[in-house]
Structure formats: structure tokens, C-alpha cells
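Need a sequence for this fold. Nothing fancy.
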């Protein structure tokens, strides 16, 4: 079984790490050191003798060592030359449980057998290959989506440059839906500044004059486009602005050969919304391990 060694961020050759990470398929943008620095300060990595690497956010909280899944990172994937049988998940999980009292992480891979003591929870995302033109993609929309999109509305759709207005709408609308504080979304402002400079993402919006109805940020991540930080105002919801906006985004990238990833949800209404654009479900996993008694796990929201 492969053995793993831990490196703190200050010991990592970040240039080499970024070069390898950005060659990964799927959600490679999450692996970039600048992204990790923002959402997982003090992150490190595990590396084995086969040069397979895995990012780790090891924290000290409440006097306990914890490895947690960072906010605004849907899931991780091992950094390696190719994703094949050389990656032995059980050895990684055993290493992680030896490092921390509590471990929570999400992996971009299908469910599989895990060591005793670990809990595995299926998570669902929705993905849509952008192989054909927009009319071909629209042919896959549900009857419900097609009907809504046929209704006339003169809102403007397209690329949006007012990032401050977008972040303000996030701060207004999202705390009540997610339970997150408005201050958390300052991280989003920092991330999109870096992403814009590196040209690894694009902000799209639906507007009516100066009014922002809906917006979403599309991350360019390897061979995927990630649907991130989507938000609608109350007026935007009433006018189904996000339906129209996603249709505009898909029209922009149609025929690119990339895969559009809605980044998933366990909420049935959102799942129907994503599936209505022709996207298909894909399972990834949430894995947890805790050495704490059950009542403390409940208090710390572990599981």
C-alpha cells in the first residue's frame, strides 16, 4: 500500500504544482495555489512515492486537528499524470484519519468501497457536454424550460463587467438561503479578481437597464465549465431570469466540446432545473471520519 508524506504550502514548489494541477481534467481550477490560498489558507499536500499528490486543509479548531472541505470548492481530485488504477483511495483515507480527529472531504469520483470507520455519502452534480450547436442543445431542454424561454422578455443577457454589483447581490440574497454570513462572500470578490486577471472565468448577467436581475460566474476549469456563484434578485426570480441567462451561457459555449458542470445540488427543485437543460446526473462522494463521540459530531456538524 502506498505511503504518503505531508508538505506544508511553504515547502511546495508552487510553480510545478500549478502546472500539473491545471493539466488535470475536470475541476482543476480549485487546485490552483492562488485559489487554495484564498479559501484554504495554510493548505498543504500529501504526496506518495508514485508522485500522486492531494491537497489537504489541516486546521486546528476547538483544540482539535481537523481536515475540512473548503468553502467554494465543490470537490477535489488527486493530482497525477493520469487518473487510473495507480490511485489507491484507501491508503489516502488511512493517512488522512491518522492526521486529524475529524476529516471531511468531497472527491470527484464515483462511490467505492472505503475503510471501516468512514462514512460515504453520495452527492449529485449535473453535467452537459457542449458538443453541438445551440439549437441542438435547446432540443434537449424539457418542455417546461422551452415554454418559459418562449415567453417574451426584453431583459439584456450577456457578459457583465460590474463585479462589485454582482458581489453585492450575492451578499444580499445568499445569506438567507445558505446560512453563510455576508462577509464570507468577500472571498468571492477576491477570487473573481484573480480569475479575471488570469482569464479563467467569465461573469454573465441578465439586466434591465441598471437593474441586475440575475448573474452567474462561469469558471474555466480544464475541460469543464463550472457554473458558480449563481444568484437572482426577487425581480429576477419572478421573470425567470436565470433560465434565460443559462440559455445565453450555453449559446456562448455551444460547440466548444467542453462539459458544462452545474456543480450539483441535493435540492430536488434545483436538480429539476439543471436536468431541464438536458444535463445528466453524475455521482461524486462526500467522505467523513471522526474519532469524536456522536454528540460532539452533532455539535460540530460532522457527517
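Here you go.
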Amino acid at each position: 500500500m502506498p505511503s504518503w508524506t505531508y508538505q506544508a504550502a511553504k515547502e511546495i514548489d508552487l510553480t510545478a504544482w500549478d502546472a500539473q494541477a491545471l493539466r488535470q481534467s475536470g475541476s482543476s481550477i480549485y487546485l490552483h495555489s492562488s485559489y487554495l490560498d484564498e479559501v484554504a489558507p495554510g493548505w498543504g499536500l500529501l504526496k506518495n512515492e508514485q508522485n500522486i499528490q492531494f491537497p489537504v486543509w489541516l486546521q486546528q479548531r476547538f483544540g482539535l486537528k481537523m481536515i475540512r472541505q473548503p468553502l467554494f470548492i465543490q470537490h477535489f481530485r488527486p493530482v497525477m499524470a493520469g487518473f487510473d488504477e495507480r490511485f489507491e483511495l484507501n491508503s489516502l483515507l488511512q493517512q488522512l484519519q491518522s492526521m486529524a480527529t475529524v476529516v471531511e472531504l468531497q472527491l470527484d469520483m464515483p462511490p467505492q468501497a472505503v475503510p471501516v470507520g468512514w462514512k460515504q455519502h453520495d452527492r449529485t452534480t449535473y453535467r452537459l457536454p457542449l458538443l453541438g450547436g445551440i439549437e441542438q442543445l435547446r432540443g434537449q431542454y424539457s418542455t417546461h424550460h422551452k415554454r418559459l424561454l418562449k415567453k417574451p422578455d426584453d431583459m439584456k443577457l450577456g457578459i457583465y463587467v460590474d463585479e462589485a454589483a454582482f458581489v453585492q447581490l450575492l451578499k444580499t440574497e445568499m445569506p438567507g438561503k445558505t446560512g453563510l454570513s455576508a462577509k464570507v462572500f468577500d472571498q468571492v470578490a477576491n477570487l473573481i479578481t484573480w480569475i479575471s486577471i488570469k482569464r479563467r472565468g467569465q461573469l454573465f448577467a441578465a439586466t434591465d437597464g441598471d437593474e441586475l436581475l440575475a448573474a452567474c460566474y462561469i469558471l474555466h476549469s480544464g475541460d469543464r465549465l463550472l457554473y458558480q456563484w449563481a444568484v437572482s434578485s426577487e425581480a429576477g426570480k419572478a421573470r425567470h431570469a436565470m433560465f434565460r441567462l443559462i440559455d445565453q451561457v450555453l449559446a456562448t459555449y455551444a460547440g466548444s466540446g467542453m462539459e458544462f458542470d452545474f456543480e450539483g445540488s441535493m435540492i430536488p427543485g434545483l436538480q429539476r432545473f439543471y436536468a431541464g437543460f438536458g444535463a445528466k446526473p453524475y455521482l461524486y462522494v462526500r467522505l467523513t471520519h471522526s474519532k469524536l463521540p456522536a454528540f460532539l459530531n452533532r455539535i460540530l456538524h460532522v457527517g
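For context: The mean pLDDT is 92.
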